[in-house]
Write a structure and sequence with these properties.
- By secondary structure, the protein is an alpha+beta fold.
- It is built from 22 helices and 28 strands.
- The radius of gyration is 29 Å and the shape is globular.
- Strands 1, 2, 3, 4, 5, 6, 7, 8, 9 and 10 form a ten-stranded mixed sheet that branches. Strands 17, 19, 20, 23, 24 and 25 form a six-stranded mixed sheet that branches. Strands 11-12-15-13-14 form a five-stranded mixed sheet.
- The protein starts with a helix and ends in a 6-residue tail after the last helix.
- Helix 20 (about 700-720) packs across helix 22 (about 730-745).
Length: about 750
C-alpha cells in the first residue's frame, strides 16, 4: 500500500522541475515547524516525519548532506544551540570579507582587517581610533547591515526562528553542495584563505541539531537559490541523518514577486542587496535565559556574541522581531561589535591598571593583554555580585583567561586554575586576560585539541600556561589590587579575636595532620571529582581528553589516569579504547567506568623511572576514530618518602578570614613558596541561612553556631586538599560544605 502511494505521488508532481513555480515570498514566510511540513509536503508529498521511511522513498527529492549517509556523527558535536548561531555568523562575516576582497581587487590579504580597511574605511577608522583611545563611541558607518541576526516567533515560546543574513558573495545553486552543504571540506584552511575568520570554526552545519529545519536562500547574479535541510530517521540506516532538498537533482530557484508580502525591514535589506545569503534556523533550541529575553538586552545573547566574536572586525546587527520585543524602545546597542570594542570604551575598565605583558615560551614571544574591570564606586570593589554583573557583560564565560584566534574566542581557562597558580583569589570577575594566538601564524590551528576544549600537550605548548601565570603573579599592580579588594571584602562585623583563636586551633591540628600523614594524599588520591549527575552525557564517544593534574610519581606509587569521554557509563564500558605508553599498547591496568570519564590505574612499579608519554586511541572495528592528547609523566628514581622526613617542611602558617560576600562558602588559597594558607569563609549566604541556620534564627544564635562550625569546615576542606581544589563548579563546592555542615549538626557533634 505504501509503495503504490509513493508511485502515485511521483507521477503527479513530476512537473515540479519548473523553477519558475517557486515564490520567494512563500519561502520567506516559513517560520514554524508546521510551515516547513506544509511546504515540504506540497513539493514532495510527504513531510519526512512519517514512520518507516527508507532512502528509496525520499531519494528523488533529498540528498545526504555532505554526500555522507553517516553525517549525524560529525554534525552532532555541540552541546548548546547558541554556539551553532556563532558558527553561522562567522560564515556570514567570511562571505562579506570574501566579496569585498574580490570587489576591491585585493591580492594577498594576510588578515581580514586588511580587507575591512579598504572596503569599509569609515568603520575601520572609527574602530582604530577607539583602540587608540581617541574616540569613545562605536558606530557602524559604511559597515551597517552587512551581517544581521534576527529573532522571529516560532511555535510557542520555547523556540526561536533565527535568520542570519549577510551581504556577502552569495552562492550559485551548482556550488551549494561544495560549500554551504559540505561537511569537513576544509574550504577555508589554505594559506590563501588565512584572512577568513571561520577557518578555525567547527562549521555552520553544527547548528542543525538544534533546529527543526534550516532553510538556505542565496542570491547571486539576481538569482535566488534555496534548499531545506532536515534531520530524518530512515529505516535502512542505524542513526538519524541530515538531508537537503533538490528538484530534479538540482538546487531549486525561487522568483521574487513584484510586491513583498513580508514587511520586515531586515528582509528588505537582503532582497535589495547585490548578493548575499540568508540562513533561517526554524525553531532553534537555545539556552532558556537567552530565548526568554530580548536578545539585544545586556547579559543576553548579544553579550554571548560579543564574547565569542571577540574582535572580528565587522559589526553584527541584532534584531529581535518577536512580538513581545520588537516594539522595545530601550536605548540598547543593537549591534554586536565584539568584546574588544567594548573593553576600549567601557567605564568599568581601569586603563591605568590594565596593560600588556610579554611572555616568552619555547622561543616564541606572546603579547598578552590584561584588563582590570571594577565597579565605578570603589566601595563596591569588594562585592562579588556587583563585579560579576559587570564582568558578565564583557565575558559570558566568566573565566579570567580567554584564547582568541582570528578574532574568535576559542576556549578559556578556569578561575580555579588561575587562583591556585597565582594566589590572586580576589581578582575573580575583576581580571580578564586575553591571549591572542594569531602570532603563531598557521601553527595556531595546531594549538588546541580537535574539540577546542584545551591546549594540546606538545613541545610548543608545554609549560605555556605556567609561564603566563608566573608573569601575571609578578605584576605589582595586580598584587596591590588583590590586596585592596581583600580588605574591602573581609567582614568587619565579626569578632576577629574569636576568628584568630579558631584559626590558631585549625593551624595546630592541620600541621599535626601533615606530620602524621593524616591528610588525604593528593598524589595518590582522586584529583578529579566525579561529574555531577546533571551533566549531559552522550550515547557515543566524541572526545578523548586526559585530565590528570599530576605528572610526577614515585616509582612505588600507583598512577591514576583520568580520560574524559563525555559519554554515558555503558558507552564507556563497551568502547574499544587502547592505552599507549611510549607509542606501545599497554594492558597492565585496571579501569573504572563512570559517566563522562574512565579512570585507568597502573600499579606502583608498572613503569620504570624516567619520562613516559601516555595517549589513548578509540576504535570502531578496525577504524581509528579518535586520539586523545598526549600526557607526559615522570617516574622518579626513589620510593615515596616517609612522612617523618618532611615534618619540618610541613609547618604552614594559616589564617582564617570571614567575607561579607562571596559565591563560595569556603575557599582555600595556598601559597606554597611562602608556606602560607588563607581560608576565606562566607557564612552569611542565603544558602547557609536556608539550609543551616534558618531564616528566623536570631543573630545571637547564628553567631554561636558559626563559632562552632568554622573549625570543622576549615579542617574538612583542608583535609580534602586537591580533591576539593579541583572541583570547578561553585555550586558543587558549596554543596559539599553544606552537606558536611548538616551531617555535623545531625550527628550532634556540635550542640546548639
Amino acid at each position: 500500500m505504501a509503495k503504490s502511494l509513493h508511485v502515485y505521488i511521483v507521477y503527479n508532481i513530476r512537473g515540479l522541475g519548473d523553477k519558475n513555480m517557486f515564490d520567494l515570498n512563500e519561502i520567506l514566510n516559513i517560520y514554524k515547524a508546521s510551515d516547513v511540513d506544509s511546504f515540504i509536503k506540497k513539493l514532495t508529498g510527504y513531510t519526512l516525519e512519517e514512520k518507516n521511511l527508507n532512502y528509496n522513498n525520499i531519494s528523488r527529492y533529498w540528498k545526504f548532506l555532505g554526500n555522507n549517509s553517516s553525517n549525524g556523527s560529525s554534525i552532532n558535536i555541540l552541546k548548546r544551540g547558541e554556539k551553532g548561531i556563532i558558527e553561522r555568523i562567522t560564515n556570514a562575516i567570511d562571505a562579506v570579507i570574501e566579496k569585498q576582497k574580490i570587489k576591491n581587487n585585493i591580492v594577498g590579504a594576510s588578515s581580514a582587517s586588511n580587507i575591512i580597511k579598504k572596503a569599509f574605511p569609515r568603520y575601520y577608522d572609527n574602530f582604530s581610533n577607539l583602540s587608540k583611545g581617541t574616540h569613545f563611541k562605536v558606530q557602524t558607518f559604511d559597515a551597517a547591515d552587512q551581517v544581521i541576526l534576527a529573532a522571529n516567533d516560532a511555535t510557542g515560546t520555547t523556540k526561536i526562528t533565527f535568520d542570519v543574513i549577510d551581504q556577502g558573495i552569495g552562492i550559485s545553486g551548482k556550488n551549494f553542495p561544495q560549500t554551504i552543504l559540505s561537511l569537513n571540506a576544509g574550504n577555508k584552511l589554505s594559506r590563501e584563505k588565512a584572512y577568513l575568520i571561520g577557518a578555525f570554526g567547527q562549521g555552520g552545519s553544527t547548528s542543525l541539531p538544534f533546529t527543526y529545519a534550516t532553510i538556505i536562500i542565496s542570491k547571486q547574479n539576481n538569482h535566488y537559490y534555496f534548499t531545506v535541510i532536515k534531520e530524518v530517521e530512515l529505516s535502512d540506516y542505524k542513526n538519524s541523518c541530515y538531508v537537503y532538498l533538490t528538484i530534479d537533482d538540482e538546487i531549486p530557484e525561487a522568483n521574487l514577486e513584484d510586491q513583498m508580502d513580508n514587511e520586515s525591514s531586515y528582509l528588505t535589506t537582503f532582497i535589495k542587496s547585490e548578493s548575499g545569503t540568508l540562513v533561517r534556523m526554524v525553531e532553534t533550541d537555545i539556552s532558556k535565559e537567552y530565548r526568554t529575553n530580548d536578545i539585544a538586552k545586556e547579559h543576553m545573547l548579544i553579550n554571548y556574541i560579543d564574547t565569542n566574536l571577540f574582535n572580528i572586525g565587522l559589526p553584527v546587527k541584532i534584531v529581535d522581531n518577536r512580538a513581545n520585543f520588537k516594539d522595545n524602545t530601550s536605548n540598547q546597542n543593537r549591534y554586536a561589535h565584539g568584546t574588544f570594542a567594548r573593553l576600549q570604551n567601557s567605564k568599568y575598565v581601569k586603563k591605568d591598571l590594565s596593560g600588556t605583558l610579554k611572555v616568552e615560551v619555547n622561543n616564541q614571544t606572546y603579547n598578552i593583554d590584561y584588563y582590570i574591570i571594577l565597579p565605578d564606586d570603589e566601595s563596591k570593589w569588594g562585592s562579588a555580585s556587583e563585579s560579576k554583573q559587570i564582568f558578565q557583560r564583557l565575558n559570558v564565560t566568566e573565566d579570567p583567561i580567554i584564547y582568541t584566534v582570528n578574532g574568535q574566542t576559542i576556549t578559556s581557562e578556569s578561575f580555579n586554575k588561575f587562583k591556585n597558580a597565582t594566589g590572586l583569589n580576589f581578582l575573580q570577575y575583576r581580571l580578564l586576560i586575553v591571549i591572542n594566538l594569531d602570532v603563531l601564524g598557521m601553527e595556531k590551528y595546531k594549538f588546541f585539541t580537535s574539540d577546542r576544549s584545551r591546549i594540546r600537550e606538545t613541545d610548543k605548548t608545554r609549560g605555556f600556561l605556567d609561564e603566563v601565570f608566573k608573569a601575571i603573579k609578578n605584576i605589582d599592580e595586580l598584587k596591590e589590587i588583590n590586596r585592596l579588594i581583600s580588605e574591602k571584602a573581609v567582614a568587619h562585623d565579626v569578632d576577629n579575636t574569636i576568628t584568630k583563636e579558631i584559626g590558631d586551633r585549625v593551624k595546630s591540628k592541620y600541621n599535626r595532620l601533615l606530620k602524621t600523614g593524616g591528610l588525604v594524599s593528593t598524589s595518590k588520591s582522586v584529583s578529579h571529582v566525579k561529574p555531577t549527575i546533571d551533566e549531559d552525557y552522550m550515547h557515543e564517544i566524541q572526545e578523548l581528553t586526559i585530565l590528570n593534574d599530576n605528572n610526577q610519581y614515585y616509582k612505588d606509587q600507583a598512577i591514576n589516569i583520568y580520560l574524559k569521554t563525555g559519554a554515558q557509563k555503558h558507552t564507556n564500558e563497551d568502547a574499544l579504547i587502547y592505552m599507549l605508553i611510549n607509542d606501545t599498547n599497554n594492558y597492565s591496568f585496571s579501569a573504572s567506568y563512570m559517566n563522562g570519564r574512565i579512570r585507568y590505574t597502573l600499579d606502583g612499579g608498572a613503569l620504570k623511572p624516567g619520562l613516559h608519554q601516555i595517549q589513548f586511541q578509540y576504535y570502531k572495528g578496525n577504524k581509528l576514530c579518535l586520539e586523545s592528547n598526549i600526557a607526559s609523566i615522570k617516574i622518579l628514581e626513589n620510593n615515596t618518602p616517609s612522612t617523618e622526613s618532611k615534618e619540618d617542611k610541613k609547618i604552614l602558617d594559616l589564617h582564617i578570614h570571614q567575607l561579607e560576600e562571596s559565591e563560595l562558602i569556603c575557599d582555600i588559597v595556598k601559597n606554597e613558596s611562602d608556606k602560607k594558607i588563607d581560608v576565606y569563609l562566607c557564612l552569611n549566604s542565603d544558602q547557609m541561612k536556608a539550609e543551616i541556620f534558618g531564616f528566623s534564627t536570631s543573630d545571637e544564635k547564628i553567631n554561636e553556631i558559626k563559632a562552632k562550625i568554622i573549625e570543622p569546615i576549615c579542617l574538612f576542606a583542608l583535609f580534602m586538599d586537591k580533591a576539593y581544589d579541583s572541583i570547578e563548579k561553585v555550586e558543587d563546592k558549596n554543596k559539599i560544605i553544606l552537606d558536611f555542615s548538616k551531617s555535623i549538626l545531625a550527628s550532634n557533634l556540635i550542640q546548639y
